[in-house]
Design goal:
binds S-adenosylmethionine, globular, single chain, alpha/beta, 7-stranded mixed sheet, 201 residues, Rossmann fold
Amino acid sequence: MASWDERFRDGSYPTDPDPSPVLQRYVDTFPDGRALDLATGTGRNAVFLAERGYRVDGLDQSREGLRIARENAAAAGVVDRTNWIQGDVPSYAFPESTYDVVTVSFYRAIDRFADIKEALTPGGVLFVQHHLRTTDPVEVGPDTDRYRFAANELLHACLDMTVLYFDAKTERRPDGRPSATTEIVARNTTGHRQSYPEPDG
Ligand SMILES: C[S@@+](CC[C@H](N)C(=O)[O-])C[C@H]1O[C@@H](n2cnc3c(N)ncnc32)[C@H](O)[C@@H]1O
């Protein structure tokens, strides 16, 4: 398979896709401040968060992805609120208690979840979406189950947090291709009494 640099360069992966719908729906319920978008790609969620006022670090291994992300940030007028980091998620040294929001879309960072959660401020929110293992005939995402989440694996990884939203489903994408995806919004809090904000829309 082509490298991510090649895929971004030849346009086989969309260079300016829309931000994640669940992120768009929940963002108004998140605390303000700093955000980290892991495996940011061309920065669709990072730029969206910057447009919403966050100071955003977008991390990816792909120089080409980050080059396009910088262009997207410039086009959106949020260069001063975005910082692009070329880094490797498996070995990255996450700062502790730093980010009010961490987002991970379509990268299986499960081995780093303990450190990612520690990178959240108290009350900080984690949004994750990724491909799911399924018996349904899907046409999007990794060919092997190794890089997909097993049933409930994402939910299980966040049970020490306050889960505000969880979903796992097979659906047709706008281009007609079937895809199996799981998503979570979880807050870095525990306790008997908490708020459960209702997102708009
Ligand atoms: C499917 S794309 C998702 C991009 C973006 N999050 C989105 O949803 O549009 C996966 C991204 O993970 C990045 N990636 C793959 N392995 C990585 C690693 N070890 N460290 C950092 N980024 C990585 C790729 O460069 C690519 O940008």
